[in-house]
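Batch job 17 of 40 flagged for manual review because the log was empty.
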Amino acid sequence: MQDTELLELAAGLALRAAAVILEIRARGFAVERKEDRSVVTEADRAAEELIVAGLRDACPDIPVIAEEEVAGGRITAAAHRFWLVDPLDGTREFTSGSDDFAVNIGLVRDGRVALGVVGVPATGELFGGIVGHGAWKRVGGQQIAIRTRAVPPEGVTVVASRHHGAGPELDAFLAGRSVAAIRNYGSSLKFCRLAEGIADLYPRFGRTMEWDTGAPQAVLEAAGGSVRTVGGSPLLYGKPGRENPHFICSGAG
């Protein structure tokens, strides 16, 4: 498959997973805790099962690394290219009744994100992008191209995690910068708000895993933004343990 076909495969699976998640939310669900004390629900598992089956059926030669499979002990080795799946990014938001949760499906090639989609079930938004070829947003049956913006004269709009956004590290990082606003979002929506040009900076000093960031990083980079470690290196994939270092997302400026 060409990258455009792989992106459409991921987009279709993200939409189907979104429908499953919303169905489960409507009828109610139990909340469990994994070994690391993070929360998980029936919606996480059902969405992942659908996505993983679809990817493996359509692309049997591309390994799939998915959050709940890893939590359950199925460890798939990274390869020249592989899928990264977070079936319900922002489970804490989902369980609390917030709409800030997402479906992440990304493809990594040679350690770098190549393409990805981020679906937002509660709003019907779907973001997609191929690095080097542009990004888009679909909602209400319409697709528009999206692009990061130059920083406006009044200063940067910063997005931060609802649960990991504040603290001395963020304060120190922003010291001396012209900050117009700080807005809090859950899940991979933070990357997408930069990608569509309504925010400029997302510093992340909390713990994340590769499946949290692969798809949204692809969307942001396809839209003209960048994701780098605090030391200035590109955020790469296929790391042992799959844990990311702290990183900074930025738009065109």
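Reviewer: the log was empty due to a logging misconfiguration, but the result itself is present. The mean pLDDT is 92. Unflagging and moving on to job 18.
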